[in-house]
Structure formats: structure tokens, C-alpha cells
Amino acid sequence: MVILGFVVSGIVLLLGVALVLTLRAAGDEPFEVEFTPLETDFPAVEHDPTAAADLIDAWAAWRTGTFVTAGSWTRTVDGRSDPLVGEVYLAQDPPRRQVIRLGAVVSAIDDPDRFENLVVSELGLVGGYVIGPDRLYDVSRVSDACFHAELVAPSLASPWGRWAEYCFDLESGALISARVRRQTAIDVETTVVVTTEPSDADFATPSS
């Protein structure tokens, strides 16, 4: 299970070919995912408590679903036209979970208690971000699959940046896209391929 707030820096490694081959070796046919192009003009968010609760439910479905996803991550620093680019990969079949980001295994879990504890902990954090008078973010729902979140007030604790959009696949629960406006950059994560029948090979540690 992934804990919020990974900070990515340094050399970007690409795994795209290997990841797609792994997905195509799984038990079902992968399907491609459409996504919204990057936008830099982020709309204001009027808080909707129902949307906030729905976002928590969608986050829970993402963290407990069974699927394999592969895609890309980019960080575009303000004033620069050459973004950092890397590959992202997630194989999840609870309690197994493996996450590879920019060439490094950042999470590898195969333990029911550990998986459950991390999911409960993360959902507690997300709930604190979007629920109640002391929430960090206002939330609105912009479609069946997508949510917007805007920082309520300037804060040192801004795990989703100043503004964020999260979109989820309604069938599998997988994250399809995320756009996060940081202080001086925009991060975009896009899922390109999803398969819903993981195999043991999908959880194999990649060779260096």
C-alpha cells in the first residue's frame, strides 16, 4: 500500500516497455484509458460534503481493488518546458501490493494485517483532509469519476498541493489520472493500461 506524500527527485528511469509486457502477460486483456490533457487554469472549488464523502469511498476502492495499472508521471516546473518524466506501475490483489515509481520499488506488501493497517491509516488521513471544519481541502465532484480539491488556506501541510484533480475507473476502482498543483510545479500521473486479473508475474521484483 502506498503512503501519501512520496517526494520524487533525482534520475528518472523508464520502465515502459517492461511494464506493458508484464500487463499483457496477465490473465485478461488490458484496456487503454482515456485521460484529460494537462490544464494549468485550475477552477475554484465550492465545498460539497457529499462529494468529499464520495471521494473517500473512491479512494478506499482504489486502495482495496484488484488490478494492475501502468502509466506515466510528469513534473512540469514553472517556467520550464522540459518536464521530468517517468513510469509508474501498481499491481494489487489484497493483501498483495507492489508499487514501482521511476524505476524503484517503493512498496511491496504481502501480509493481511500490514495491508489492512496501512489502508485504514491512509483513509484516516484522507478523511482528515476533506471532512469537517478543520479540513485542509474543499472538494467538489465534476463527473462520476473525477473530483477536484482546493486547499482551504495556506498551509505547510498540503499533501495534495494547492489544487488537485483525481479520477478513478468506475469498474476496477483504479486511479486513472491525478493532477496536482504544487507550489512551483504541476505533477500529472496518467494510467495508460489497466488489467483486472493480476498474475503472480505481476508481483515479481524487476531485475536491475
What is the overall shape? globular
What separation lies between the terminal Cα atoms?
Answer: 22 Å
Quickly give the structural class: alpha+beta
In percent terms, what proportion of residues is strand?
25-35%
**Tally of helical segments:** 3
Task: List SSEs in N-to-C order.
Answer: HEHEEEEHEEEEE
Which parts are unreliable, with pLDDT below 50 for 5 consecutive residues or more? 1-26
Average pLDDT reading: 85
Radius of gyration computed on alpha carbons: 17 Å
Helix content: 10-25%
Quick one: biggest sheet? Answer: 10 strands, antiparallel
What is the number of strand segments?
10
Compile the SSE list and pairings:
Elements: H1 16-24, E1 31-32, H2 49-64, E2 67-77, E3 84-93, E4 96-101, E5 104-110, H3 112-130, E6 137-141, E7 146-151, E8 163-168, E9 175-181, E10 185-195
Antiparallel strand pairs: 1-10, 2-3, 2-10, 3-4, 4-5, 6-7, 7-8, 8-9, 9-10
Helix pairs in contact: 2-3
